[in-house]
User: Fold this.
Amino acid sequence: MTVAVCVAVLATGVACQYVQSTAPGPATIRELPPLPGQTTGVFTTARPTFGAAVNDFLNRRPEAQQPIEFPHNTHVGKGVMCEFCHEGVDKGPVAGIPGLRTCMICHDAIATDRPRIQQMAAMRDKGVDLAWQRVYGFANEDHVKFKHAPHIRAKVECTTCHGNVAEQTVAQRSVEHTMGFCVNCHNERKASVDCLTCHF
Amino acid sequence: MDRRAFIKLTAVTGTSAALASCGNPENQIIRFLPAEDIVPGVAVWKPSVCPLCRAGCGLTVRVMDAEADVVRDGQPGIVRISAAKKLEGAPEHPLNRGGLCARGQAAIQVTYHPDRITQPLKRVGERGGGRYEAISWDEAISEVVLRLNALETSGSQRSLAFFARSGASHREALLRQFLARFGAPAPITYELFGDLVLRRANGLSFGREQLPTVDLANARHVLSFGADFLGTWNSPVAQSVGYGQMRRGRPGVRGSFVQVESRMSQTGANADEWVPARPGTEGVLALGFAHVIMAEKLLPASNAGSAGRLIGGWNEGLADYAPQRVEEITGVSVARIGRLARQFAQSRPAVAIVGGPPLAHSNGLFTALAVNALNTLAGNMGQPGGISFTPQLDVSAAVKADGPAGAAAPTLAQLAGDGTASGSTPQVLFVDGANPVFTTPPAWGVREAVEKVPYIVSFGSFLDETSVLADLILPDHSFLESWAEALPESGANVSVASVAPAVMRPLYDTRAMPDVLLDIGRRLQRPLNFPWQTFDEMLAASFGALRPATADVDAWTDAQGKGMWSGTLPAALTRQSETTPGAPGLTYAFEAPRFDGDAEQYPFHFLPYPSSTFLDGSLAHLPWLQEMPDPLTSAMWSSWIEINPATAERLAIGEGDVVEVASTQGTIRSAAVITPGIAPDIVAMPMGQGHRFFTRYASGRGANPMEVVAAVTEPTTGALAWAATRVRISRVGPPDGRLILFAGGIRENVGQGR
Assistant:
């Protein structure tokens, strides 16, 4: 019976695809009424909902919903290098998802007749950026410290970990970043497999 | 309920809880276009200046991309910003040389504090109630201009008062200019632990009304009278760097260090020898040492020069300060006096430092003069391993501002006492970075005086005891969002002027206080005609007058990149200290310190001391500092009273017991910490806690020792003699969890410290 209860609860949690992100902050001790514009919530590492906790525990993430159907295939096909837009990739730990400003470097002049580009120009005029969602990444609980730059220096191809983006529009998680995947490559290339190389 | 029913119920509630938690479609996040180009994940280090105390240490700030919650046109969303993430000491800065104290490390929290004031506010409801409504900057500044115009029309410019933070800076120079041009008296810069007495003594002894720079790095022996120079006094990081060098930076030479004080401070805990003297008698001990040195002809008495002539009987070998009498007064034995005197005279170079509690008595000036005389007897003035004075930039000479000279500022006690200092009670009061309602004894009546002011404007970023009385709040940028600068008074042999541009864009709708002043000056009916439109024009004018360090770049550009300028100042740009000359031929002799409360009824000396985390309480809003254990007691998130074990046993007080401290002024309650590092007739309490209003972290936590401190002053300077109160203590109850110790305590009960 107890097992059944647990299974039921877990299953319900797993069934949840969405988590509510705006949880009310806990009550705080204060002597004075809050000032206008002041935040009242206190940061907490706890999950906002039970469903979110279960999803997190099972390393389940909802499919990324991108604001526009960005055509990676077109851009790669035209010979735009990855690091032109993901400019942090050879400089630091994160490659970075480019904002609208990066798009408009070219698209102020190129393909300005396309409706999607015009839509982006309108967003820029309103001061709104593209709200990309992350596709890859490790959960905090994995205690992984991944740095892009050393991999680029070691001449690892982007496709090794990100699949053939030239055949995708918006990026898909086509390669699962399991520990085995990382260690295999490290072994092949005789890179360090010391725990502390990748883990905190 | 049986077991089966319980399990069923659990299943039902668990499932519904899980169901309730899902199915809500994720709100579409709005992302705004960032205002700057940011490379993600790449750190940039930018210079800045620590604002938390007068020392003015140089910072280097790690800046990286971050996401900030913002509201634009009523629409909440996220924007990528480059944000300051970590503060470190600037490696090339001549003061701190890469070091930074724990308080400086926590300064980052000033910017991201959840209770920061984010926009101009106007009071609604009764004064002190803390209810405010948002108004626009334009409305807010118009309102101030209207008030100042009204003063001008009625010819009462002198009734504008200004509470400002102390310490030389361009900001302070601009403020003085503003007040002088308007016709108001100079700003009131009260600081509880402000070293006024030592400055005055240095003016008399050496003609420099300034805090000394101690060359600890080259000293062989340090004799400190109460100065917590590694913790809170003067320029602690510069002094710690020098101290490290003295102790173990020279192969084969380890400098020795003796600390004279009646409560062991963080600095005293590092000493080779800790000498408790009776409170207020440290000057006698210094002269006792001088007596032995002269009597045994270890050093020539002629060394002491003008500093010695100020001491009565110096030329006669200080007959009044023979070891026998010194023992009677101070409680330090004759043998020990002789030994310490010989050690001081025979270790060359030796240096004496004085600061803190010994000067916080009615005879503090005498004590400081006595130690100054001892220093000159050792012949260490301006010598390696001795005392010197850092040349300071004269801002008004550098910017060639020849506005009218301002009237002298009234002291806080005068202002509160009778309102006679400036003719009448101020009609308009500006408050910038000062909280005198919290840091003055109740007998001064500062709170009552401030409440009487018809219109109060605060530039503060947080509501504290003083700014909660404000009618209008014009929040300043944090130091990371605006020009940061300081003109350090002490800590280096060369002149240092720290300056750095903003390291990040403002997070909120705040404005830099100097720019607001300039704006107000332009909009008055009689404009104040400043030669600068913005604060950075003033800074550029000032640094432009300095000698460049290298030939290929000017001083202003160079200083912005490095976060400071340092070098030799031409005489025309060096600040002449405003020395108050003593009467010619006047000599000083020991007078017994005056204490409030009679010894029968109030048997203990009460020593409020600067907290190693909060200083005078101005940093109690930073949660990292609340969380930082006191180095000697390991207490955190709370306040406490230090009691000697013998005293505690006599009064049946145990560790953590709730104790009541009563003086002629009032009573406070706090938890007892039993510690051997305090004389049996003294109880000590750190400043800093006991805030009524100071953000969610400090409000209503602990007790404020100032509530029992009496209004005894040092007569020549008017400085508060904060160590001159007598109290009685009594146990009122068992430990109730209000004392939170890091060592062996339960850390989760921080709410009980309130």
User: Anything to note?
Assistant: The mean pLDDT of chain B is 91.
